[in-house]
Amino acid sequence: MLHVSPSDLAASSIEALRVLVPAALPAAGYVITAETPAHVPAREALLDRAMGPGRVRKSSEVIRRGRLPADGLAFAATGLDQSLLGTLRLWHVAAGTRDGAPVAALLLGPLAIEPSAQGLGLGGALMRHAVGEAKRLGHGAILLVGDPAYYARFGFSCASTARLAMPGPFEQHRLLALELKAGALSAAGGLIVGTGRAAGSRATRALQLSQRVGVAA
Ligand SMILES: CC(C)(COP(=O)(O)OP(=O)(O)OC[C@H]1O[C@@H](n2cnc3c(N)ncnc32)[C@H](O)[C@@H]1OP(=O)(O)O)[C@@H](O)C(=O)NCCC(=O)NCCS
Questions:
Q1: Where is the N-acetyltransferase domain (predicted)?
Q2: Which comes out higher in pLDDT, residue 47 or 216?
């Protein structure tokens, strides 16, 4: 769990956040935790508010649909009153192939911050936490589709994505990647496809149940 104190954010930002979401921002700041099943209804409502109903038609959604996020890489940012302020998940994919073999990577998204709390550093905090965890867990590269002007600050670029494609309409200049291990995406080319565990399998239901009752799995 990442604790972020007010000193981590500009004083003016903290003050603005208190004004905008007085119930959501406790004096101690906010926390980034692993997403749990209890976050799901608020997460879906937040995604609808932040991204609109068209979010389910994105090419990234084709990759995510029916699958679970990568283990340990689904995050929730909450106020200390437990209200959801931000969501970010990462998914197992094959970033095309190299010499005929799938290239393992992660797809990042969706990232969304509660509209009344945007522009105050929460998105950045979630991104840095997620990238750090993905690296700690030994993943080689992260892909995403998003605004280069936002994601460049976290090291993402289109330098290694020119030969990759999404399974649906996408803008090539918005297909970005960050290599966590040097050369992880070199010579990778082709279609990005989901490779994560299917949601709804017996193993998945058991995992979800264990999480609901608080059993370590
Ligand atoms: C994009 C989003 C996640 C950023 O989170 P946030 O908490 O608002 O962002 P932060 O406070 O960490 O960063 C703010 C900075 O990012 C910049 N920024 C935000 N969105 C941007 C965008 N789409 N393109 C370029 N810069 C952007 C701001 O101008 C600000 O810049 P500054 O630091 O130079 O002042 C958030 O605004 C959001 O949820 N938007 C709606 C959903 C969405 O678009 N998700 C991303 C899909 S690709």
A1: 30-181
A2: 47
